[in-house]
Amino acid sequence: MVTYVVLGSFTDQGIRTARESPKRAEAFKRMAETFGVTVKELFWTQGRYDVVTVLDAPDELSMMTLSLSLGAMGNVRTESLRAFSAADMTEVVGKML
Q1: How far apart are the C-alpha atoms of 31 and 66, rounded to whole Å?
Q2: pTM, rounded to two decimals
Q3: Residue range of the domain that includes 18
Q4: Overall domain count for the chain
Q5: Which of 3, 29, 41, 64 could form an S-S bond across to 83 if both were Cys, CB 3.0 to 4.6 Å?
Q6: Tens of pLDDT along the chain (97 residues)?
Q7: Which contacts (CB < 8 Å, 24+ apart) does range 21-25 have?
Q8: Roughly what angle, to the nearest 10 degrees, separates helices 21-34 and 60-73?
């Protein structure tokens, strides 16, 4: 599995319909499952980003398909960050020259 941290910002459409955001989050979780992606955490936040999500995807293509499908709905713009666990990072630094 590949872990991602996804930062989301409401679009104008998304902020106008912010009351629907909890329902949209549940629909997003169901949509993610159709691509084999698991939503591990989903938080609404204050500051530069409105939503922070932690996802596990089987591969990059599944994540890309989910991201594009979400973006096409028009409520949120996202920035996806590939995340590495401590075990992953230990392996990475172990291979450094």
Answers
A1: 8
A2: 0.92
A3: 2-94
A4: 1
A5: 3
A6: 999 999 999 999 999 999 999 999 999 999 999 999 999 999 999 999 999 999 999 999 999 999 999 999 999 999 999 999 999 999 999 999 9
A7: 24/75, 25/51
A8: 150
